[in-house]
Amino acid sequence: MFLTRKPWAPALSAxxxxxxxxxxxxxxxxxxxxxxxxxxxxAADIIGVSQDFLRRLxxxxxxxxxxxxxxxxxxxxxxxxxxxxxxxxxxxxxxxAAACRIITLEDQLAxxxxxxxxxxxxx
Length: 123
Known about the structure:
Elements: H1 26-30, E1 38-39, H2 40-47, H3 51-59, E2 66-67, E3 73-75, H4 77-91, H5 96-118
Antiparallel strand pairs: 1-3, 2-3
């Protein structure tokens, strides 16, 4: 998998450059599922969990929030969706470590299926 650098990746402050050397546009960041737009408190409120729950997801290495210049965790919509999936599994009795592993395996399977669909047929 090839990762592309996001315009906001070098810093979360104003002045981040995009790949063409220009300024990152606010609309580009707001439409980007990977843009770390949410503080820990807001992220926890959105998905209905405690801040400790989000910290433990980081400890389990399911999500790695970006850190602001002040060291505060910032979460993206994609990370919030993962956290919500974990919460759903945990709400049904699955422990967090198992929930994280299930989600990781589900995502790996989905990626493998997409890759297989893109391969030309050998028939």
